[in-house]
Amino acid sequence: GASPQPPATLKLDSSLDCLWTNFKICLGLRNAIGRFRKTSGHFLPNGKKLERLGRIRRTKNNERGGSRGLAPLRGVGQSPTVLAAWRGFFMYDGKCVGYVHSVDSGGMVDGPGIRYLVFLSGCSLRCKYCHNPDTWKLKSGAVATVEAVLRDIKKYRSYLKFSDGGVTITGGEPFVQAEFLAELLAACRETGLHTVLDSSGNTSVENAEKVLKNVDLLLLDIKSINAEVYKRLTGVELENTINTLKVAERLGVKTWIRYVLVPGYTDDMDDVRALAEFLQPFENVEKIEILPFHKMGEYKWDDLNMEYELRDVEPPPAAIVDRAREILRLKQ
User: Are 328 and 276 within 8 A, CB to CB?
Assistant: First the structure.
């Protein structure tokens, strides 16, 4: 997540006319702050099975794609989880559905104000320092319609708007479920809620254009500007991330860059300087956040019986973090 931000100051009107409104706001905050829920079962009624709509077709470039123009994801290798995400998409009663890993109705670090966080399951990257490897598998989440997710979000709409907050879609990598992501963001926009997308940008240009048109703020994770380091850290190419940033600029989407400082991987100051120079022309990039590497998610790798390659890597010294921030200060 981003560097911690203080919660918005809530100034309650003491007039009699507003007592009921104030009571509802306080009640909502009491029930919501810090509330994190791992979804279980299905959002669909009666546990009915999903129906896959449409057949696999061949596109002009001989890549597989979905039946409604969902562009194929390039450069992801042959991960069964990823393939399942772009071999068409799932429908239920004519509605697009997705897999939701968990939700948090009191987020305060992934965008302005208080946020309702939706963690979509499925990821096309395999980051060595990932603190949510439990979100990698697409079907690790509960099946959900856009309407079901939105119905839960609306329970908290009053204090989300009151705090100048909104909805943040994260993961996993949300673009793995590009069709569901696009529809969910559009639905949130229609309700008047501020939308944030937290993503690595690892998707096609077509998907980026479809999704970002309903995004108010993009939190874009650039793991490294060095293509070789990026591939070594994530298992995928850097190109898709850069293309997504260019789409965001063209559409005028405000963007915050997130850069995780990992000793031995992304702490080379020449690479940090190259990142600053690369980002300088992008007028939509409002700031860059340096996120020092931490090991708070290491236990999840152990729980999943997965090898954690960075077990012996320690968080970067404060001096290195300060130096990186100094180099990037022109974009803070």
Answer: yes
